[in-house]
Amino acid sequence: MKAIKRGVRRQIVSLPVASGKTVIFANLIKRIKPPNPKATRTLVLAHREELIHQAVRIIGIYNPGVKISIEQGINVAEEQAEIVVASVQSIGRENSSRLLKYDPSEFKLVIIDEAHHASATTYRRVIDHFLQPTNKQQEISSHGVNSFFGRTKDNVIPSTVQSIISNDNQCILWGCTATAKRSDGIGLSSAFQELTYHIPLEELMKQGWLAPLRGQIIRTNTSLEDISTTSEDFILAVLSQRINTTVRNQQIVDEWMRLAKDRKSTLAFAADVQHVLDMVATFEKCGIEAKYVTAETPSDIRAQIVSDFKAGNFPVLVNCGVFTEGTDLPNVDCVIMGRPTRSWVLFQQMLGRGLRRFENKLDCLVLDVVDNFGSNSIVTLPCVFGLPPDFDFKGMNASEACSEMQHLFMKNINTIHCRSVDDARLASLHSSSIDYTEDPEIQHITDLQWLKVGDQRWFLPLKPSTIPATLTIKPTGRRYVARLHNESKKKTHNRSYNCRRGVASAVFSFL
């Protein structure tokens, strides 16, 4: 609300998975005041059926008496609906007449759920319709009404188009996402002006809003070393062929039986449909009832399976690419990460299925299946807490383990190379304390929290996007050397600078 007062009309907020984004925007609707008597309506935009129906249900709870209608597929929203929950595929496709029927001047607010998709063409069409009348006027003038919107009867310009051409409405665009970046690296600045709020996952756990996480690694002998990748992730077909083996699947089930058999609701993520089927078969062979859902599962069967899973009628549900967004499964108390990924976005979406609070649910156990990733960078639960991807929590509470590792690091800098809390405890017995003496010159150069270790040597532990790394600077004669050590690839890079002010440059050059 403060950002709106500053004139920020296109906002995106970053909230962790399972933090209740739908509840937040359901309450936001009534707090946004119409900029004029005509602009009273709200559009909620989503890309999956589950998100659409979830939004309708939650918005109705917090906005009783308000008329809510769905625009999706065969469902056509009522003209007088105060809140329209729409499928972006339905109203954002090229030449869609469904978009034209909405007069932008009647809307005070456009909400985008899972807003990291907002740079996609379908979303851009909708955003431009409601929030960029000036640009759209120019395009209409250049190409004509028919070429931009499709054919109009008798070449009459619809009233909604007239509104676009003549009005600069004050509609607010508000997007929410668990990660304010896309998996394909495309920026969101074309849709949003400012990230107006962010709270990290760890903070919500500390505050008790999210279920605590326990972590356990399942190490396999499967190699990911030479699997082809894109800029975002492994190529799925190649990945599935490599990881969907009898040995690996059996190891996952054996470890689940050893570590998680008493868990009530386990959600497993596989790579593709065949991997899903083979995982289910392996569970069933061991006498464990397991069911599955894929994109090919009919909607009525899918709904029944999900309902039975929520009711606790069977212990294991396996899926691939389905329960990553818009799925409310608060009963999940164990997550199997059976599908390796290099994508922070995807990993957080999978992890989020186990974060919701639920009656009698004490925590969620994450079984991280860690293969031999070699030079490939992967995302695992430890990465979320700033630890190396092959760090093993050994069943510990992840937040508590992270805090202890930070404490042990302050006692002995060498604990940063340890791969478990137990190892770090042993390493910390050998004193190597850090001098906290503040250096005004370093503080003047950079806001980063450098730690002074020894005489004129500074150390910065990095929390990277995909790999663990450390950055150290120290003087060598009249020059300063910056040393970046990549923990995953076991490689070190050095750069030197003429003066201490170059230290700041070194940081940003490496990052």
What does this structure look like?
This protein is of the alpha/beta class and 511 residues long. It is built from 20 helices and 18 strands. It has helices spanning 2-5, 21-31, 49-62, 88-91, 97-100, 121-131, 133-143, 145-149, 159-166, 201-206, 236-243, 246-259, 273-285, 299-310, 344-352, 381-384, 398-411, 421-428, 440-445, 502-510; strands spanning 10-14, 41-46, 68-71, 83-87, 107-113, 172-177, 194-198, 213-223, 266-269, 290-293, 316-319, 334-337, 364-372, 451-452, 458-462, 469-476, 479-486, 491-497. The strands form 3 sheets. A 7-stranded parallel beta sheet has the order 3-4-2-5-6-1-7, with helices on both faces. A hairpin with a 2-residue loop joins β16 and β17. α2 (21-31) packs across α3 (49-62) and α17 (398-411) runs parallel beside α18 (421-428). The chain is globular and about 70 Å long. The two termini are 33 Å apart. 39% of the residues are buried. The model is unreliable at 133-167, 182-187, 463-468 and 497-511 (pLDDT under 50).
